[in-house]
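Narrative summary of target 7.
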Amino acid sequence: MQLKEELRKKINEEHRHLRCAEEDLVGHFEDFCASPTTESQKQLAILFADFSSSLKSHFEFEEEGGYLATVIERRPHHGDEVERLRLEHSQILEDLERLHKDLEVDLPNNAEMLLTLKKDFRDLLTHFGRHVQKERELVMDVFWLEGGFSS
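Modeled conformation, tokenized:
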């Protein structure tokens, strides 16, 4: 029981950390959009790299040592849902990497690329938000409603 409780706490801690990192990224992105300068673009690129690294580590935790394996072990009927979440991990990381590469372009002097980046960033945040919500619902189903920790 102790290991399962630690896993639940780790999941919550990781998600809390990612929410804070995402809020920082969004805040800096908004600042950059309001006043796109070379310096603010460099700072944004650093935050993208940090967020990407944190997200990659988080996804690895979920897939290899975290709750996704526990979900399958305890409630195999959620296998298709877990596989969809794993595939989304790859897509989200690919999109984040592509956006990070777009930050190598001189965006303050390229209005078309800047608009594309804004749209793509919005799409990424929407996709990521929906992904996190699906994970949260899976955790509640398996570990709360279906008794994943106690059975």
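Residues 2-145 form one domain.
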